[in-house]
Amino acid sequence: MTPNSSSDSSRSSRRSFLASSGLAALVVAGGAPLLTACGGSGSKNEGTTTGKKLKDLLPAYVASELTGPDIPAENGSAAGFTKALPASELKQSVPKKLGKGGEFTVMAPIWGNVPKQGNPYWTAMDKAAGVRVKWQNQQGDTYGQKLGAVLASSGVPDAVVVPGWELTGKIPSAIANKFADLGPYLSGDKVKEYPNLAAIPTGAWQRSIFGGKLRGLPMPAATTPNIAPFYRTDLFEKEGLEAPTSAQEFYDLCKQLNAPKSKVWACGDMSWAAWNIFGVLPEKPYYWKLVDGKLVNRYETDEYLEALEWSRKLYSAGFVHPDAKAETGSIGDLCAAGKVWMYCQDLSDWYGKAAVQRVDNKKFRMEAFDYFAADGGAPTLYARPPADIWTFISEKADEKTVRDILALANFTAAPYGSKEQRLRMYGVEGVHHTFEDGVLTKNGKGNNEVFSTYEYLASPAPFVAYPDLPDVTEGMVEWQQRQGAHTKKPLFHGMMIIEPTRYTELNAEFEDMEKDIVRGRKKVADMQQAVSDWKSGGGDKLRDWYKKLLDETGASGDAAS
Q1: Can you spell out the DSSP letters for 232-265?
Q2: Ramachandran quadrant class, 47 (left: phi over 0; alpha: psi -120 to 50; beta: rest)
Q3: Strand locations in 270-336 (E)
Q4: Measured between alpha carbons, how far is 282 from 274 in angstroms, rounded to an integer?
Q5: Which PROSITE patterns match (predicted)?
Q6: Of 59, 173, 372, 539, which residue is 20 to 30 A from 329 by alpha carbon distance?
Q7: Distance from CA of residue 298 to its chain's centroid?
Q8: What digits encode the pLDDT tens for the residues 59-90?
Q9: Which helix (H) or strand (E) segment is 36 a member of?
Q10: Dihedral of the CA atoms 455, 456, 457, 460 (nearest 10)?
Q11: Which ranges constitute the DSSP H helices of 450-501?
């Protein structure tokens, strides 16, 4: 389950909302400024929080001992659980109902149809947590637009979910100005009033500090890659093929497999995988590395251009399914149907496809092959943030409302093997799911009502739990662990950095240009010109801002060469 949900594996967004969850090492630079605001006359909310101020803000960490995983977390992976217990054997992680019956509104993204108000799932969750939630769900594909409008208004809901990829424009400063400081409720030992929140890894809390205050309730994420290069293992074995181990092998394999006349293509768009194959730096704010004492940005690196050129060649050779070029349909579904041999998507797709296909084809096997460097050596992978999705509480909320929201967050952050987790993930037994022979199965009502809502309030340390397909659970976690062995921390890893507002849209054009280049609508040379324009249009000044931040904080990371 990624993140912390065994059946929500079809969710996605432009930044893959399903991030595998995990713990990142916390690095605190002693003696650094409490809140660094680089760039002269910038906002007080710019920069990052470090040193003693950071230590004072962070909640105490108290690990949950409710149940142990079948596959312990390793190398930044999630933990794995391959079995499900009957309801009678589940443990209770919230022995005392903390909610006081208050009603509050929560704005959150949703992919699919919004369940009807008063449905049995929401009703059961409210009753168990002791609160009453009025959901204001917005479609995930347009969530950023809705979010910006709401935060610009005076009518901010009591709680709002903000994904990290929406931290653009004025949204970061709105977070620091419109949402409550949770430090008085959670910093230090105060968090122990909410044991499941206390068990959230410290790295996730560090990423939840905005404007010098602890404001976010985090959804922890694994630091290993969340985008996986999938292939049809069963079909490969049938043809006597092996997974590729270099960029050239991948290309040659595509040439061998591609058969457009038979309506079969070698692959989908592989751009996301290419970033890992070519060792490209992550996206902001971790898109810098030190080279001879100078900060170099992701867009300025040879690796970035090489990844674009490789992805472009796959398209120009005709190896990529036409739907990928048009950005329509589901390439994953085409792979499951045998029309595409390889594609890349969020790791959670592993379970999603297997769960559907094995209903009729028990021999169906789809796995992710390990990343490799372009030349076939060990890959250079960069650790992902320890949290990149948060829920914030309105600064206008009174203490009773804040505590009711925290009570619900403590309930939703319950670990695997608890009664609370079972209810959140599967709904009410007999209404939304059944348990037979150790297998949990959602029925139609469960599939229509029990999906992404509550886990956004807060989630436990990351885990993968597919007891109905234990081989998939093992495969996913072990894949994470193998990739984690080649993962290093980028500069500023784990820090929540708020760039000056004047720079937040500086990179806006790159994603669309990347798509145009790999699809042949523009040339790699156009990207080189765009990078030159980026530098003169503010990129060099942004570099200076980050260099000052680096000098003042003694930032973490291994991205120096």
Answers
A1: -HHHHHHTT-----SHHHHHHHHHHH-BGGGTBE
A2: left
A3: 288-291, 294-297
A4: 12
A5: TAT
A6: 372
A7: 20
A8: 999 999 998 999 999 999 999 999 999 999 99
A9: none
A10: 50
A11: 470-484
